[in-house]
UniProtKB/TrEMBL annotation, chain A:
<keyword id="KW-0732">Signal</keyword>
<feature type="domain" description="4Fe-4S ferredoxin-type">
    <location>
        <begin position="750"/>
        <end position="781"/>
    </location>
</feature>
<feature type="signal peptide">
    <location>
        <begin position="1"/>
        <end position="23"/>
    </location>
</feature>
<protein>
    <submittedName>
        <fullName>Prokaryotic molybdopterin-containing oxidoreductase family, iron-sulfur binding subunit</fullName>
    </submittedName>
</protein>
<feature type="domain" description="4Fe-4S ferredoxin-type">
    <location>
        <begin position="695"/>
        <end position="725"/>
    </location>
</feature>
<dbReference type="InterPro" id="IPR006311">
    <property type="entry name" value="TAT_signal"/>
</dbReference>
<dbReference type="InterPro" id="IPR009010">
    <property type="entry name" value="Asp_de-COase-like_dom_sf"/>
</dbReference>
<dbReference type="InterPro" id="IPR017896">
    <property type="entry name" value="4Fe4S_Fe-S-bd"/>
</dbReference>
<dbReference type="Pfam" id="PF13247">
    <property type="entry name" value="Fer4_11"/>
</dbReference>
From TrEMBL, chain B:
<keyword id="KW-1133">Transmembrane helix</keyword>
<dbReference type="InterPro" id="IPR036280">
    <property type="entry name" value="Multihaem_cyt_sf"/>
</dbReference>
<feature type="domain" description="Cytochrome c7-like">
    <location>
        <begin position="126"/>
        <end position="217"/>
    </location>
</feature>
<keyword id="KW-0472">Membrane</keyword>
<feature type="transmembrane region" description="Helical">
    <location>
        <begin position="12"/>
        <end position="35"/>
    </location>
</feature>
<protein>
    <submittedName>
        <fullName>Cytochrome c7</fullName>
    </submittedName>
</protein>
<keyword id="KW-0812">Transmembrane</keyword>
<dbReference type="Pfam" id="PF14522">
    <property type="entry name" value="Cytochrome_C7"/>
</dbReference>
<dbReference type="InterPro" id="IPR029467">
    <property type="entry name" value="Cyt_c7-like"/>
</dbReference>
Amino acid sequence: MGPVNRRTALKLMAASAAVSAGACGRQPEAIVPYVNMPERLVPGEPLAFATAVTLSGVAQPVIGQTFDGRPTKLEPNGDHPAASGSDAFTQAAILSLYDPDRSKAVRKGADTASWDGFAGEFLPRIEAHRAKRGEGLRILTGPSTSPTFFDQISTLLDRFPEARWHQWDPLGEENVLAGAELAFGRRLKPVYRFDRARCVVSLDADFLGAGPEQTLNAARFGAGRRVWGAKAEGFLRLHVIEPVLSLTGSNADHRLAARRGRVAELAQMIAARFGAENLPEGGIEEDARIFLERLVQELSAHRGQALVVAGAAQPPEVHALAHWLNETLGGLGETVEFLPADDEAPPAAGLRELVDDIDAGHVETLLISGTNPVYSAPGDFDLAELLGKVPFTVHHGLYRNETAARTTWHLPALHDLEAWSDARAGDGTVTLIQPLITPLFRGRSLFSVLGAFFGTLDADDREVLRAHWRRASGAGDFETWWRKSLRAGFVEGSAPQSVRPSAAAVPKPVAPAVEDEGYELVFRPDTKLWDGDFANNAWLQELPDPVTKLVWGNAALVSPSDALNLGIEDGNLLEISLGENRLMLPAMVAVGQAEGAIGLALGYGRPEAGVIGSAVGVDVNPLRRLDALWHATGAELRATSDRGRLIRTQEHSDMEGREIIRDLSFADFLHGTEEKDEEVPPSLYPDWDYPDAAWGMVIDQSVCIGCSACVTACQSENNIPVVGPEEVERGREMHWIRIDRYFRGEPDAAEVLFQPVPCMHCEKAPCEPVCPVEASVHDREGLNVQVYNRCIGTRFCQANCPYKVRRFNFYGYGDEQAYENLDDPLYQAAANPDVSVRSRGVMEKCTYCVQRISRAQQRADREGRELDEGEVRTACQNACPTQAIVFGDTNRKDSLVSKLKRARHEYDLLGELGTRPRTSYLARIRAVAASAGSEPGEGA
Amino acid sequence: MAQIFRRRSNAIVKVALVAVVFVPVAALVFAGVMARSRYADGIGLTVDQPVPFSHQHHVGGLGLDCRYCHTGVEEAAFAGVPPTHTCMTCHSQLWTNAEMLRPVRESLAKDEPIAWNRVTNLPDYVYFNHSVHVENGVGCTTCHGPVDKMPLMQKAEPMTMQWCLDCHRDPAKNLRAPEDVFATNWNSADGKIHGHERLKRYGIDPAKLTDCSTCHR
């Protein structure tokens, strides 16, 4: 169009006025009922189904809530023996289900194809292999615990005896199983009973950190540290030796930072004190010696209640040593139980064997499912190139990822919430997976794809599953068994009998670590992206790492003294070189890290993750080696003055002498006489009276491990938008509950303190009187509510809130100005219909899940009864694996929240301001007094 | 030199001066009245429907209970619009060839739902729940008007926040005995007599009904 003159401008104005005037008519909205309404369904009311999602093949049992056939929220399945709370991955699974970047069609190369087209090529090929007894046929899968899958693969291998099944898990627990084999002569999976232990030693084991057993471990750990509920007889004390500060290390009472390669040496010293012979003694620094003395003394004081846990990154010898120690200390069968890991699954070969076979030209057909080796394989070999050598490769997965781009065919898979399947939970209980929604795209399950080996790609997954369990259940009346198990979500009593292994072998010396000059690279699963599988999940990308508080990227974690030596500070780009490989990533000075160790999180820098996750952070997989997956020595570092991007949600970690997190020792808790400070400053604000309920919350800091499941649960429940890296950088993240992390003490050996901070729902709320339009108001049940449709966005309330829990929509994050593709209609299906989606210019904050309160009250009203104690549970409370969050009616004297509010160690955050928060905290109880950390034996 | 202004210019200026004051005021008054009018609220306007369903015939004439079709009303936020199968319980036997019912038969045959047009609508940030109103003695016709006399469904009340609050501030007059909730011939005089005792019986605390969180989340 040419230059706009006056006439054109007037014409355009008139036209637009006419158009907008014409749009004023009433546009009726459609109501579309069913043709035939499914039974039990009431439009707009949620239905709940027991199912599970998997992490590294392990079931995370959930109750899925669906609205009109649309899953919106996953709650832990409270009846399941292994379920107590949830984790961030499980909570974020809903978002992945609706990811518009998921693969939608079968592809041959870059072209769209069909399942029939694939069957036309694949089935004759399988027939040809069958004639050769399966020679040249290879299947590569990710980790699995599914009995039906094991059954299928066994049958398959019987039919194709020359075929081979390989497994690749970049975060595999091979060392754990090999360690048990070393000690007991059998591959066993240890299950730890932290609830029965009083003294726990972690040898580089991050059992509280992200992982498939996190919730189970955290729940048991929490039970060992909770002082309410059942009578607290003692208090779990945790000693941790680790290279990089982990979630477990953050919860330690005594922690020693040591390079990963040195943990074995320290473990041998511990064993030597308990009578193990022929172990080499090494030199030891003074602080490590004190640490070990205390540790040994406490272990011996807690025979029968002691537990030594070795991490998956440690070599099998260290595991064997831990088993021997547990036996010596009377822990076998008490504090640690063992599940058989070798009886159900046929033996699988590893990635190394596959690579060798491809190299030797033995592989003609390769099916890859549920794993992304082109991205996640270590740097020893170029798998992308190797795949080119196989004549026929198939990738089956949720995304067209790095591996899919290099295979002949790509097949879309089903999300766990669309599929029929089964898996074992952390305690071994068989958990049934049923779909909450019909497949959104044209995906099929692995059962269907493996069906090709039995002649059809059209197998009915439900029937495959039922056929297996009809045989395996041994139930006389299968239909009753099936319905009962499906309804419960798990098979009762299906956890395998724990194995009582024979005596552990006397530990053999571990080959001494090669003390290379140079730095040690410590590879760690990411707390949010895991092995990179969750890279395209925006909730997880924006979830702050519990310890580093990093979002949208990874960094090289460097110890403070190394940083000093290298002359670098946060954000300096660091060049790491290891042999031929080198890469650049931003450095971050990390508290509590062993000197000479560099912490590197896996899962970042994926080239083909999707719109959200591609090219976020740096891929460190090329530095890994298949024979030493977890650490590498001899790395060289070169500091540069260039700046990389480091986005953190909390930059300041000091309490500045204020009593933000109070703590006291267990001994003081038991015998202390200090009375609760009941004095409340006077206030000019009005008083309120609550004739019915008065909601309140108590957060127990003794058991909060900082895992952040609550943050993601809240995000899912309350339609909290993702703002993207640029906006987080400006401090505009929207989480309604955050976890503040503080450090206390010397940077090299700092104590870590976590504090979840939701809205305090103050009685004398500073946000209320400053709002010019009364959008921030008190309600008659004690809630401090925010009225979105009144809010005009002055942000006075935010400025006046001492807790900084109010969040402002600077842009239309939730709708028209969403980050990247998050406004896709498919993503909108993940929204909770009970909660408004906030628009631009509106303030929002934690509501105590008012929608859940209303729903419960309306249900009670319909049923003509009063609300039960504990009937209303907030999303964060439900997700918490350690029951650190307690919510309820403070008007009821019998409610748990009232009891905890009366506890002597309950206090208000910034109580001196006189805001009288309805959310209050229980002081953190520690095994030892904070100042006298070196006195052994006390308290426990 | 000729006169620049003619005689009638005076009149024009006078009219213009009056208009400068009067027109904006009139416009404001008009806008105010319009905004509060039955027209702006859509009261009494019928909405075109794929099938001209008559509540007058089915409720007033045949005496069908509201809950026969609106099954969710006692247990859910939405009262619900009946699935095609509900229509066909009768219409597979009655008026099986009526032209008017062709969309219903086609819906069943093709397994495609009928898209009805909404008559009453609330903004998305209002969380209205039918079940609690019905449970606490607020009858259908209180908000939906005399449906038994509507050949085609029309909105009977403004459904504005002001209108909601009129009742939430003083619900007594609208409270019915439980057996009268679905009655179409309820006499509002009954509410004025027994309203306050029902308020107690239903356990309603009007003070809580005006909390923002009652309707907005």
